[in-house]
Amino acid sequence: MAALRALRWRRRLPGLVPRRLRGTAESPEERPQFPGASAAFSDHLEFIQPQVLAGIPVYRVMDRQGQVLRASEDPQLPKEEVLKLYRTMTLLNTMDRILYESQRQGRISFYMTNYGEEGTHVGSAAALDPNDLVFGQYREAGVLLYRGYPLELFMAQCYGNARDPGKGRQMPVHYGCAERHFVTISSPLATQIPQAVGAAYAIKRADASRAVVCYFGEGAASEGDAHAGFNFAATLECPIVFFCRNNGYAISTPTAEQYRGDGIAARGPGYGLLSIRVDGNDVFAVFNATREARRRAVAENQPFLIEAMTYRIGHHSTSDDSSAYRSVDEVNYWDKQDHPISRLRLFLERRAWWDERQERDWRKSSRKMVLEAFEQAEREPKPPPRLLFSDVYREMPPRLRRQREELERHLETYGEHYPLQHFQK
């Protein structure tokens, strides 16, 4: 009976230990004086079993048919704002399809789609202030798209052409935009997490009313940088929102092989982070959670952790074949039964804000916009080779000047062996 009572108590307050483990009432002199934890003595030998604790619930606003479950949780967004959410998600989906196909045709070298995760991008982006600083991983193109980043620059970056703000020096999908407060994406996994915490600490010291939002996947949460970042954010009390997209797979590794705990949100309390788990396929749930986390992060200088549960419908990247480690039936279920775009469309149709004619017209016009940007990017030349040496130092050191001169002499002598006609003069 005592064990049953303890089990019920644990389920009632997940994350805490039952009263029996806390021992009897003690005088102040008898309480533990250890500086590293707040607890009481116990005279019972018992290990805390994670399987006994109830799983963290998944917050949602809409069901899979696009119906709001509780009126009080409806964010009450105006029609035009909800339509912007939907158009951004579908435009991202269209851009993904065209760029994915272009890589398969050998037109670009690499690509990563966002299929199935559009709700996490757009729902969170809509809840931020335009001045909030964003650190992305590599699957947050929807955040930039929502902030008005032009299709032409998405294409230019993937092609690495002369219009690319990164001057062709990054592999595709590594976007960045200082004007839209989106830090350029890095390839190494999880490096953005401690960097984001440092930026948030600087913002706190400057007393600026801004937040930092740091995106990453559940696979990146296994990196040491994630644990260091969480701890620094909590101890330094930084205004940051950690946004984890738990899409079920770290490339080919399913979550069952990544960790044994209750996802990523369960780690938050251990580091002192206020945490929540949300339905990442419910754009309103993502919006509500991000808006409140962002508000409190700025007002209270506290870090927050959001775990958005979603599913990666596409391959990890164009270098991956997901059919080798998951079934077609599994992918089809999430694509047909629980997709963030279809869920929001059902919501719009229930409100009579969208219909089949509008859907057909928008799909046609959005595809035209993407193709026009795509064709323009394909016509642009590559950046001049001399840019290989710029933007590293404010004043170019002698060794880099010598290397640049050596390259120029080499190309003058052997230029016919290189496709220089495709590069800007």
From TrEMBL:
<dbReference type="GO" id="GO:0009083">
    <property type="term" value="P:branched-chain amino acid catabolic process"/>
</dbReference>
<keyword id="KW-0630">Potassium</keyword>
<keyword id="KW-0479">Metal-binding</keyword>
<keyword id="KW-0786">Thiamine pyrophosphate</keyword>
<comment type="similarity">
    <text>Belongs to the BCKDHA family.</text>
</comment>
<dbReference type="GO" id="GO:0005759">
    <property type="term" value="C:mitochondrial matrix"/>
</dbReference>
<dbReference type="Pfam" id="PF00676">
    <property type="entry name" value="E1_dh"/>
</dbReference>
<dbReference type="GO" id="GO:0003863">
    <property type="term" value="F:branched-chain 2-oxo acid dehydrogenase activity"/>
</dbReference>
<keyword id="KW-0560">Oxidoreductase</keyword>
<keyword id="KW-0496">Mitochondrion</keyword>
<keyword id="KW-0809">Transit peptide</keyword>
<dbReference type="InterPro" id="IPR001017">
    <property type="entry name" value="DH_E1"/>
</dbReference>
<feature type="domain" description="Dehydrogenase E1 component">
    <location>
        <begin position="86"/>
        <end position="385"/>
    </location>
</feature>
<dbReference type="InterPro" id="IPR050771">
    <property type="entry name" value="Alpha-ketoacid_DH_E1_comp"/>
</dbReference>
<comment type="function">
    <text>The branched-chain alpha-keto dehydrogenase complex catalyzes the overall conversion of alpha-keto acids to acyl-CoA and CO(2). It contains multiple copies of three enzymatic components: branched-chain alpha-keto acid decarboxylase (E1), lipoamide acyltransferase (E2) and lipoamide dehydrogenase (E3).</text>
</comment>
<protein>
    <recommendedName>
        <fullName>2-oxoisovalerate dehydrogenase subunit alpha</fullName>
        <ecNumber>1.2.4.4</ecNumber>
    </recommendedName>
</protein>
<dbReference type="InterPro" id="IPR029061">
    <property type="entry name" value="THDP-binding"/>
</dbReference>
<comment type="subunit">
    <text>Heterotetramer of 2 alpha/BCKDHA and 2 beta chains/BCKDHB that forms the branched-chain alpha-keto acid decarboxylase (E1) component of the BCKD complex. The branched-chain alpha-ketoacid dehydrogenase is a large complex composed of three major building blocks E1, E2 and E3. It is organized around E2, a 24-meric cubic core composed of DBT, to which are associated 6 to 12 copies of E1, and approximately 6 copies of the dehydrogenase E3, a DLD dimer. Interacts with PPM1K.</text>
</comment>
<dbReference type="GO" id="GO:0046872">
    <property type="term" value="F:metal ion binding"/>
</dbReference>
<comment type="function">
    <text>Together with BCKDHB forms the heterotetrameric E1 subunit of the mitochondrial branched-chain alpha-ketoacid dehydrogenase (BCKD) complex. The BCKD complex catalyzes the multi-step oxidative decarboxylation of alpha-ketoacids derived from the branched-chain amino-acids valine, leucine and isoleucine producing CO2 and acyl-CoA which is subsequently utilized to produce energy. The E1 subunit catalyzes the first step with the decarboxylation of the alpha-ketoacid forming an enzyme-product intermediate.</text>
</comment>
